[in-house]
Amino acid sequence: MEALDYHAEERRKAEFNLDEMKIVWAGSRRNYELSDRVARLVASDPVFRKDNRTMLTRKDLFKDTLRKAAHAWKRIIDLRLSEEEANMLRSYVDQPAFTDLHWGMFIPAIKGQGTSEQHEKWLPMAYKMQIIGCYAQTELGHGSNVQGLETTATFDPQTDEFDLHSPTLTSSKWWPGGLGKVSTHAVVYARLITGGQDHGVHGFIVQLRGLDDHLPLPGITVGDIGMKFGSGAYNSMDNGLLRFDHVRIPRNQMLMRVSQVTREGKFVQSDVPRQLVYGTMVYVRQTIVSDASCALARAVCIATRYSAVRRQFGSQNGGPEIQVIDYKTQQSRLFPLLASAYAFRFVGEWLKWLYTDVTQRLQANDFSTLPEAHACTAGLKSMTTSVTADAIEECRKLCGGHGYLSNSGLPELFAVYIPTCTYEGDNVVLLLQVARFLMKTVSQLGSGKKPVGTTAYMGRAEHLMQCRCEVEMAQDWLKPSTILEAFEARAVRMSIACAKSLGKFSNPEDGFAELSPDLVEVAIAHCQLIVVSKFLEKLQQDIPGKGVKRQLEILCNVYALHLLHKHLGDFVATGCITPNQGALANEQLRLLYAQVRPNAIALVDAFNYTDHYLGSILGCYDGNVYQKLYQEAWKDPLNDTVVPDGYLEYLRPILKQHIRTARL
Ligand SMILES: CCCCCCCC/C=C\CCCCCCCC(=O)SCCNC(=O)CCNC(=O)[C@H](O)C(C)(C)COP(=O)(O)OP(=O)(O)OC[C@H]1O[C@@H](n2cnc3c(N)ncnc32)[C@H](O)[C@@H]1OP(=O)(O)O
Ligand SMILES: Cc1cc2nc3c(=O)[nH]c(=O)nc-3n(C[C@H](O)[C@H](O)[C@H](O)COP(=O)(O)OP(=O)(O)OC[C@H]3O[C@@H](n4cnc5c(N)ncnc54)[C@H](O)[C@@H]3O)c2cc1C
């Protein structure tokens, strides 16, 4: 018997080859096959069930996380999964855990900042999980300002050791994931002090707990920082606090690729730039951009499928009501988010390439592209996570009341997702880094130094400052060169206007502080340009499959034109387009929504999410929403009894009092 599919009709409407689109989304046929296999593996394993986790107490949730992590590790070993497959498996388990930090930050920190001897000593143990590590940088008093950290690591030449110490309450490490209850080791960031001199913040490998009894080592105070936002969600993670009371570690546990301390206590700065100490953050920021596309796709998949099932108003002659996805307002809220999911996917792919390229250069001691890599990872991390966090909430609203039910999957997705706007760098702080980079690039324009990479367009500032958009009809907005030039002209004009305003201040730092809200907008304009241009570049590639490229062109245009519509003020104020051209863009946008509509369900099917991973009744593949909602309601523990606990103590007396009052 064929399975029931409420979306069958929608799926028939699609005008493109879904299998080929799945491959585009996954990045390659190989990625698609791997990820499909691993997702099914997780979905079919009862240990990885997650439908009840918002009901668990913190302790039970945490134990459940340990159980899942242990089971995941067993599967990884038994099935001899590659590192790539293992990462996929952990991400499909979809429960934040200490392993994210062990694999995602502790190991990369040692790899990026350790010497080859340190690699040889620590990495094999870490790869086998004989030690488990976390990334302990943030303190109670300082997170964004890394140079303001207070923990000290003072070299003692007598014993050839560092003395790790937390001199104040505010120097307590605070937030590191995996630290609270699990990690045996940490990469700790502390001020290096030799011969009474402060050499700034460096990384140190520190053992925190005994490998036999898991008890904190002498001088170490460690624990969990407490409940976080939402139920379930990020509370599966043991974000921790940590204090050192003169804890001793051998000299060779300072990560010494960037700087070294000799046996005599001499501080040696190598040719490697000091910023490489921040390298792990650059790596993770890059992964966060791809993760943003996954989270956004997930929310959009739920909202799109449900919008096709949900009907309100407009029944004619007793026929069905209108599917809410057919309302233009619904489309204008939903389809730009769908387009953004694809846009972030492609920019994430490109950023991965950029990161690999910069890593290879660093290995060959070429540091020239580091500032660009920092600006791109910081800016795109910030832009994509802010959009995604807001989009998840928008998708909840797009699902009406049922979106507020926990089993829509959206509340938990929101609660898990929103800290990405803060961790790995507060989004505003990171955009200001991008703005600094842009202002520096502008200031060098006259010096003959040609901007390269993502700022190459600034080399054409002369043209972009005076060009006029040539759009006369709505369809003129479909020309890639027209779109690109509008975004480039807006970004360059905003940058140069800000640079000019900065020039009016006698002290540039005062100017930067005063103009920071404008500088943030400049950085956003630049990041949006990067995303638009990388989407357009993707379309230059040979993309097989009937109708696939055509759909991507439509989505690319939706992405660019919805931004143009949203930021029309910027575009018009900088004079690169006229208000009338803005209105034409909006007209075109409406036409594009009509083209997305028949393909909407297939475009979210292309994400290839299992029902397990989606974790949403509203987004389930077969669209059998109402029956599932009804069945699920009865599973709530409140419905275990007909009369609730507390009736006798608290309800009945009130009700009876009412009767008594009535009798009076
Ligand atoms: C499931 C499977 C797993 C597999 C893998 C998955 C991976 C996922 C992993 C895990 C999941 C996630 C779980 C949660 C994780 C959360 C973790 C954390 O949150 S860890 C803490 C983060 N903390 C921050 O990010 C602080 C932010 N602050 C900073 O980065 C800095 O303090 C900053 C940039 C704001 C200022 O730093 P200044 O004070 O040293 O810098 P200035 O003076 O402004 O700049 C000096 C120069 O250095 C450059 N610079 C700054 N940062 C740079 C960098 N990172 N790289 C290169 N250059 C940099 C600047 O551009 C500037 O350059 P010029 O001198 O102008 O040319
Ligand atoms: C869930 C979660 C997991 C985390 N995991 C880890 C981890 O594993 N390891 C770790 O070391 N840390 C971790 N962190 C800490 C995280 O990296 C920091 O919280 C983050 O870097 C932000 O720093 P902050 O908390 O000091 O924010 P603050 O800097 O105090 O930000 C507060 C406000 O001040 C503004 N602000 C700050 N500086 C400026 C400025 N210069 N100009 C303008 N505005 C400014 C910000 O925009 C923000 O609005 C985690 C945090 C969370 C929430």
From TrEMBL:
Identify the residues that the record assigns to the Acyl-coenzyme A oxidase N-terminal domain, covering every copy: 18-132
UniProt KW Lipid metabolism keyword: yes
Superkingdom to which the source organism belongs: Eukaryota
Which species is listed as the source? Hibiscus trionum
UniProt lists the family membership as follows: Belongs to the acyl-CoA oxidase family.
Q: Name one GO cellular component term.
A: peroxisome
Instruction: Give the InterPro entries listed for this entry.
Output: ACOX_C_alpha1, Acyl-CoA_ox_N, Acyl-CoA_Oxase/DH_mid-dom_sf, Acyl-CoA_oxidase, Acyl-CoA_oxidase_C, AcylCo_DH-like_C, AcylCoA_DH/ox_N_sf, AcylCoA_DH/oxidase_NM_dom_sf
- Please give one Pfam family short name: ACOX_C_alpha1
| Binding, FAD | T138, G177
State the needed cofactors, names only. Answer: FAD
Q: Where in the cell is it found?
A: Peroxisome
Q: What is this protein called?
A: Acyl-coenzyme A oxidase
Q: Which GO terms describe its molecular function?
A: acyl-CoA oxidase activity; FAD binding; fatty acid binding
Q: Which Gene3D superfamilies does this one have?
A: Acyl-CoA dehydrogenase/oxidase, N-terminal domain, Butyryl-CoA Dehydrogenase, subunit A, domain 2, Butyryl-CoA Dehydrogenase, subunit A, domain 3
Residues forming the Acyl-CoA oxidase C-alpha1 domain are 278-439
- Keyword set for this entry? FAD, Fatty acid metabolism, Flavoprotein, Lipid metabolism, Oxidoreductase, Peroxisome
Annotated Acyl-CoA oxidase C-terminal domain ranges read 480-656
Q: What is its main location?
A: other
A GO term (biological process) for this protein?
Answer: lipid homeostasis
Catalytic residues in the record:
E424
